[in-house]
């Protein structure tokens, strides 16, 4: 099987994010159903996508080219001291913006101005609500539910690394606020096994018994089951650990935010990739067969819905057959659905999975012939790691992973050779090594350290510098106005939100293709930056779509 390694999808793809914002799921309410999409796309967006696709340059099938678009010039700091100086400057700019705008809680305590024109009502918060619950003069209590057992337990290692990162902040003196109070961070972690039925009572325990300042939840179904309650009680739920588009809903769920690239945007970018290669994919019989395997939960519905929404507006839809299979998150193997999909003679396969199933899909594809017969195999963005794709995981010489593609969400690969010359990767590796953790085994360690740990720290520091010091309202104001250079993102990918106008932190991605010899996804082309392009998403669970 040969792969086209040249891809030049540039800034013209900005229209794709507008398309992604309209994406939802099927109107039958579940991944795997062959139903029409509930999404709609306006003509201007559709034309923008077509223009972007028409302007791309790809190599003919079988060309074997190894060319890639030149990487942008290095602008990230090259020393930790320079990074710290940059962040101090950026935090100061955010604080200045907030103070100039007079954002924060109103004098009567009944509302909060989050940004220009965006006010959150506090009058409906639960009786006895406190803006400073979870804070003492010396401590910040943060609750976190995650999967430390079960088939998605690998993501629980985010909590391990985040705990190490926050512990080092504590050792360095903690965080001092504008009221002169210096606090350390107490991260309280509970294992829900990625089972939302277990998440609910654990969240209750953390907010009612532990009385935490803020709650961080891992998993789309887990967050979905708890975000109504947390928002009704005005408890921050920041940096939710999944890419579900529903976290971009500042009007109905102002206390919840996400962090990573939205799954529906990921799906639409894959759709754009497919449209670019239409002639190649239709070469045999004039048809394109796309198959996918999704988790049978909210995450899988968001992935699958994104593909269906793209397909519904695609001028190629009459030429495409889309076949989706689902699997339960707790299923020990993916053999049965992958065997079914192998019989479909697909041109494209899209993994819409997470955890152990990501590796299993790679292994099954190598064993059932899909690795050789399917022209383009896509791995899920949440599996961008040697902890899923490396030869120690897939077995043998690692060739089972060769050639797989990914929409990587703009996140750096700290567990590969790409991190060898990155000063922040070196810092993170040393921190993990000091704790006896082999950072080569799982990129989730870096997610906890460089991604969630760092972003949480910056938000807490900004909120602490505001008038009145650290409070729940100030914390949400800080999050929804943050604009910083993240050390965990590739150059060209932005980390920012803007009140209710831009509710997604990261809207950038690269395409990557796995090189088994290098044991890494190799970036193909430039970063596609869609910052500020995605519309808000009022998620409708009955249709599995943005309302």
Précis, in short:
The protein is of the alpha/beta class and 547 residues long.
Span of the ends, CA to CA = 41 Å
Q: Which CATH C-level class of the largest domain is it?
A: Alpha Beta
CATH architecture of the largest domain: 3-Layer(aba) Sandwich
Radius of gyration: 22 Å
Number of domains: 2
Structural class of the helices, strands and pairings? Answer: alpha/beta
Tell me the strand percentage band. Answer: 15-25%
Layout of secondary structure:
Elements: E1 7-8, H1 14-21, H2 43-54, E2 57-58, H3 80-101, E3 104-105, E4 111-115, E5 118-121, E6 139-146, H4 157-171, E7 175-176, E8 182-191, H5 196-209, E9 214-217, H6 220-224, H7 227-232, H8 263-276, H9 278-281, E10 288-295, H10 298-313, E11 320-327, H11 335-342, E12 348-352, H12 356-368, H13 370-373, E13 376-379, H14 386-389, H15 391-394, E14 405-407, H16 423-434, H17 444-464, H18 472-480, E15 483-484, E16 495-496, E17 508-515, E18 520-529, E19 539-540, E20 545-546
Parallel strand pairs: 6-8, 6-9, 10-11, 10-12, 12-13, 13-14
Antiparallel strand pairs: 1-2, 3-4, 4-5, 7-8, 14-17, 15-16, 17-18, 19-20
């Amino acid at each position: 099987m040969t792969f086209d390694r040249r891809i030049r999808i540039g800034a013209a793809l900005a229209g794709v994010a507008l398309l992604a914002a309209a994406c939802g799921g099927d109107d039958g309410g579940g991944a795997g159903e062959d139903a029409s999409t509930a999404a709609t796309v306006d003509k201007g967006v559709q034309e923008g996508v077509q223009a972007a696709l028409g302007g791309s340059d790809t190599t003919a099938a079988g060309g074997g080219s190894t060319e890639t678009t030149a990487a942008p010039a290095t602008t990230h700091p090259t020393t930790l001291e320079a990074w710290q100086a940059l962040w101090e400057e950026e935090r100061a700019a955010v604080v200045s913006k907030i103070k100039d705008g007079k954002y924060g809680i109103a004098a009567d305590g009944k509302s909060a101005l989050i940004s220009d024109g965006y006010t959150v009502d506090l009058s409906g918060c639960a009786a006895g609500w406190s803006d400073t619950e979870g804070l003492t003069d010396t401590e910040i209590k943060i609750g976190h539910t995650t999967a430390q057992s079960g088939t998605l337990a690998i993501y629980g290692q985010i909590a391990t690394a985040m705990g190490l990162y926050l512990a080092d902040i504590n050792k360095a003196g903690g965080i001092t606020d504008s009221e002169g109070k210096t606090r350390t961070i107490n991260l309280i972690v509970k294992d829900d096994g990625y089972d939302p039925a277990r998440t609910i009572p654990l969240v209750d325990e953390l907010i009612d018994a532990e009385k935490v300042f803020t709650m961080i939840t891992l998993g789309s179904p887990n967050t979905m089951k708890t975000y109504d309650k947390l928002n009704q009680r005005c408890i921050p739920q920041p940096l939710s650990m999944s890419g579900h588009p529903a976290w971009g809903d500042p009007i109905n769920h102002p206390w919840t935010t996400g962090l990573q690239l939205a799954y529906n945007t990921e799906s639409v970018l894959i759709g754009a990739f497919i449209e670019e290669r239409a002639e190649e994919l239709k070469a045999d019989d004039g048809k394109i067969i796309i198959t996918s395997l999704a988790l049978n939960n909210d995450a899988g519905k968001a992935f699958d819905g994104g593909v269906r929404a793209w397909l519904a507006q695609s001028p190629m839809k009459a030429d495409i057959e889309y076949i989706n299979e689902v699997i339960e998150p707790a299923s020990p193997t993916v053999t049965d659905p992958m065997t079914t999909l192998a019989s479909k003679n697909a041109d494209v396969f899209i993994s819409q999975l997470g955890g152990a199933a990501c590796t299993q899909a790679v292994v099954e594809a190598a064993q059932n012939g899909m690795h050789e017969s399917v022209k383009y195999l896509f791995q899920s963005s949440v599996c961008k790691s040697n902890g899923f794709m490396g030869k120690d995981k897939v077995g043998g010489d690692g060739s089972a992973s060769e050639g797989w593609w990914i929409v990587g969400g703009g996140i750096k690969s700290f567990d590969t050779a790409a991190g060898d010359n990155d000063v922040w990767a070196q810092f993170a590796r040393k921190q993990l090594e000091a704790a006896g953790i082999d950072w080569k085994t799982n990129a989730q360690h870096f997610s906890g350290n460089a991604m969630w740990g760092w972003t949480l720290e910056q938000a807490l520091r900004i909120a602490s510098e505001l008038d009145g010091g650290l409070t729940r309202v100030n914390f949400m104001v800080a999050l929804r106005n943050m604009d910083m250079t993240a050390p965990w993102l590739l150059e060209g990918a932005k980390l920012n939100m803007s009140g209710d106008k831009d509710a997604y932190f990261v809207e950038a991605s690269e395409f990557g293709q796995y090189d088994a010899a290098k044991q890494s996804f190799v970036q193909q082309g430039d970063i596609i930056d869609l910052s500020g392009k995605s519309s808000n998403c009022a998620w409708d669970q009955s249709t599995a779509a943005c309302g």
